[in-house]
Amino acid sequence: MEALFEFLFRASVSMAVLFTLYWLQLRNSTHFKANRYFLLISLMISVIVALIPIQYQVTVQTTAKETFNEFSGVFNNNISSETSDINSNNNISFSSILHLIYFTGMAIVLLRIVIQCRKPLQIIAKSTPKKINNCLIYENEIYNTPFSFFNRILINPKYFKQDEINDILTHEKVHIQERHWIDLFIIELLTVFFWFNPFIWLFERAIKQNHEYLADEGVLTRGHSPVRYQALLINQLMGTQVIGLANHFSSAQGPTRFKMMTKEKTAKRKLFRMVWGIPVLAILLVAFAEPEYKTTVTDPATENISAIPINKETIKVRGSVRNEDGTVLTGASVIIKGTTTGAVADKKGMFELNVPKSAKSEIVVSYVGYKTAVMKINPQLKEQTLNLQLEKEVIGIKINTNTLSSDRDVPPPPPPAPEEFSKSDEPVFIIVEDMPQYNQGLYGLEKYVQKQKNKLFFEGKKLEGKATVGFTINEKGEVTNIQILTKSNDITAKAATKIAGEMENWKPGSQRGKAVPVNFAMELEF
Fold first, then answer.
1. Contact 477, 327 (CB under 8 A)
2. Could you give the dihedral angle defined by the CA atoms of residues 52, 54, 58 and 59, in that order, rounded to the nearest 10 degrees?
3. Eight-class DSSP state of 241
C-alpha cells in the first residue's frame, strides 16, 4: 500500500507543477485546441511519470554473500511460530486510517458519478430521439439547460420555441463532433483516484471551460451572429451543473467567456510557451528517478580468472546436479575454477565438461539458493563421473534498527566500474544467476525496516533485543514460509514476524532466467 501512496503523491506533484505552468503561460491564450491537448497530455504525463519512473543503475560490489547455514537444518521443517498471530487490536495504525479515508473518498466520488449518469441514461433508454442536423436529440423536462452527453443531446422542449434553437444545437454539435466527452471521461476517472488533490479539480474546471471556448468559437466560425449569441447566453438560466460527464450550454458563463469570444487572436509565435513543458518534464523525470541496484559478488571460488594453465591434455568430466530431495537442478552452472570455461546442467540435470589435466583442477557448481560446491578432479583419470547433490543455503541479512538513521536517506553513489578481463580467444562462460532483490536492495530493505520500527507498538512493552526471522522468497517474489528462528523475547519475535509479513514483493531469484525460491534469515536487533 505504501507503493500506492507513493504513486499518488508523485502524480499529484506532477499535476500541481504542470497546472501551474498552464495557469501562468497558457490560460489566457486563444489557442484553445492547443490548450486542450496540453491539459490532457499533462494529466497523462503526470500518471505515467509516477507509475513508470525512469531508473538509473547503481552497481554495488560486495564479497561473497553471507549465509546463516546454522539454520539450514531447521528452516525447511516449516516451524509453526507461536508468534505468527500478532495482536491486531492494540491500536489502529495511522496507515490504516489513511487507507480507510482514501478508499472512502474514492467510493463517494465514484458513487457521485454513477448517480449523475443514471438519469441521462434512463432518458436515453426510454425515449425516442429526434434526428436534427445528424444529431440525436432527446427531449426531456427534467433538466432546464441543454447539454451534450457523449454523442447525444438532451434538451428541454421549451427551447424549440425559441428563435435561437439553431445556435444552441450548433454549440452542442461542436462538443460532439470534437469528442469532448473523451476529455470528460478521462478527467472524471482521474478524480476518482485523485479526489484529495485540489489540482485535479482545477484541471477539470479548466478542461470544461476550454470546451466552452471551443464550442463558442465553433458557433461563431459557422456564421452565427456574435451579438445574438452572447445575448442568448446572458438570457439563459444559470442553473446548476447536473453531471460531470456532460457539456452544458450555459456553463462557464461570466465575463471571462465573453472576453475570450471577442479577444484578439493570440499570435502563433506564443505557442512556443508550451516549450516550457520540456524542462518541467525533465525536472520531474529526474526528481522521480529511482536507483536500480545491481550487486556484483566477488566469489573466492571463481576468482583469479585463468589461474590454471590450460593444457592440451584434458579429463572428460560428466555428471548430474540435483538437490537434497533428488530434484534435478536444470540450469546449474558448472565452471572450471579459475577459468571462464564452463557448462550448464540440462533438463535432466546432466553436464559434460573437458577439464585440464592438473593436480589443481577443480570444478565449481552453483545454483541460486544452494551452497556452492567445489569438487576436486582426479588427474589420474581420463574420464570422471560426478553425481553432485547441492544443499540449500539460508542467505543472511543483518539489520540493526538502532543504527538506522537519516544518514541512509540518500542511496549510495555508484562505485567505479569494475575492470574488464583481458581479451582472449577462449570462449567466456557467463554465470547467469540472480539473487532475489528487494526494491532498492539492502538500502531499500533498511529503510523499510526503519519505517516499520516506528509503527510497532505491542501493549506498551519496550521493544528491545534480537530476533532472527526466516522466510522464503518464492518464484513470484512473494514472502512466504515466515518463521522465527531465534528470539530474545516474544515482543521482538512478534515485531520481526510483522516486519517480514508486511514486506512488499521482491524481485525473485533466477537461474538462467528461470525463477527459483530462495531462503533468507534476517537478523534484527532492536
1. no
2. 80
3. -
- Provide the 8-state DSSP code for 178: T
For the chain, count helices (H), then strands (E): 12, 21
Evaluate whether 357 touches 313 at the Cβ level (below 8 Å): yes
C-alpha cell at 90: 492494540
Identify whether the C-beta of residue 168 lies closer than 8 Å to the C-beta of residue 232. yes
Q: What is the pTM of this model?
A: 0.56
Residue showing cell 445574438: 228
User: Quick check: 519 and 454 in contact, CB under 8 A?
Assistant: no
Q: Is the pLDDT of residue 475 over 80?
A: yes
Q: Is the dihedral of CA 163, 167, 173, 179 positive or negative?
A: negative
What is the distance between the alpha carbons of residues 437 and 431, in angstroms, rounded to a whole number? 17
pLDDT tens-digit series, residues 46-79 = 999 888 888 766 665 554 456 666 666 666 545 4
pLDDT, tens digit, 9 for 90 and up, residues 375-416 = 999 888 889 999 999 988 888 888 866 655 544 444 444 444
Q: Cite the beta strand spans of 252-391 per DSSP E.
A: 290-298, 314-323, 333-336, 342-344, 350-356, 362-366, 373-376, 383-390
What distance in Å separates the CA atoms of residue 329 and residue 390, rounded to the nearest whole number? 9
Residue 137 class from Cβ within 10 Å (0-12 exposed, 13-18 middle, 19+ buried)?
A: middle
